[in-house]
Amino acid sequence: MIESDKELSAKVQELWDNDINRLQPGIDYRISLQGKAGDSMAINDSNDIAGYPLFTFVDENIFKKETFSAFISLLDNYESDTGEPEIVTPEEEAENHKFLDAIIQTPVMKIAHKYLVEKHLSPEDEAQFKEQLYRIWFELYARRGSSRPDSSGFEHVFVGETRGGQTVIGFHNWIQLYLQEKLGHIDYKGYSINANSPQPDQNKHIMALQFSWKNGIKPKGSIFIGVSPEFEFALYTLCFLSSPNEHVKVQFSFYHVEIVCHHYNQKHIGTTYPVLLKYRNPE
User: Fold this and answer.
1) For residues 207-246, b (16+ Cβ closer than 10 Å) or e, as one string?
2) What are phi and psi of 25, to 5 degrees?
3) What are the beta bridge partners of residue 168?
4) Hey, where are the domains in the chain?
5) Which residues contact 252 (CB under 8 A, 6 or more apart)?
6) Catalytic residue check, 218
7) Count helices and strands in the chain by DSSP H and E runs
8) What is the pLDDT of residues 95-115, one digit of tens each?
9) Which residue in the list 11, 113, 189, 218 is annotated as catalytic?
10) Which run of H or of E encompasses 224?
11) Does the keyword Nucleotide-binding apply (predicted)?
12) Where are the strands (E) in 13-81, listed by range?
């Protein structure tokens, strides 16, 4: 690994070690991987070899924790179709601030903030740091093909969007996936692997999968499972601000991961998600 990746890996390991709200697989939640998804983009795909939902159990008491409940309150604030302009109500803006206020007090965000201040990438003042986070994640911009502000980093990554009614874009969050699946809006079609991917493991926290949502298909999406909202926020913000590369390789815990982080106008997150490269055997 190049030197900066080693430094970033050490910081990501610190985030991982301090993610006190992370769920334990097999205890706080259980998933059913079933079979490998096909390559078809069809909605009513006969290749759907996952007859059951991905999530077989989630301890919903977790969702009462402050950062989780503040996060969940944001998930119904968006128009999923790109091209539909977003109208942010004062209530929704207040919910955004409440979420940032909650996560900024967590150990993982404090670690990320301290590191970014040391690198002269973020202001030391907490209120100014929160403004920076708001701009990166919640400020609206016009996604490709739209003339009006219809998207944000938060909506794309954590909520998901649809394009042309046929394709799901973004949508890289397990909580949204679980809640939408519970409502019957998600049809999990199986896990995704290629020749270089490790076989997925129901006790690990990263997987690639295929699913349909709102009449659109996500042919391949990659997500963390069971981690806290603040962990993902801290990790992705760290990668966005500290690396000019849109593909950052890091190692932590059992995982060799590439964090894909596309910048939008250098001010906002276009998309960001983890790609599992391999599992590292515990030494």
Assistant:
1) bbbbbbbeebbbbebbbbbbbbbbbbbbbbbbbbbbbeee
2) -60, 140
3) 162
4) 6-18+49-77+87-279
5) 9, 12, 13, 15, 16
6) yes
7) 8, 10
8) 999 999 999 999 999 999 999
9) 218
10) strand 216-224
11) no
12) 29-31, 55-58
* Cβ count within 10 A of residue 184: 8
Cα–Cα distance list, 130 to 118, 121, 125, 197 (Å): 17, 13, 9, 37
Q: Which of 113, 156, 205, 268 is catalytic?
A: 156
Of the listed 11, 113, 172, 189, which one is catalytic?
172
- 189 three-class SS: strand
Task: Give residues with Cβ within 8 angstroms of 8, minimum separation 6.
Answer: 238, 239, 242, 243, 248, 250
Q: How far apart are CA 274 and CA 248, in angstroms?
A: 10
Q: The tokens 């106008």 sit on which residue?
A: 265
* pTM of the complete model: 0.91
The yes-or-no answer on residue 182 being catalytic is no
Q: What is the pLDDT of residues 158-217, one digit of tens each?
A: 999 888 778 898 999 999 999 999 999 999 999 988 777 788 889 999 999 999 998 889
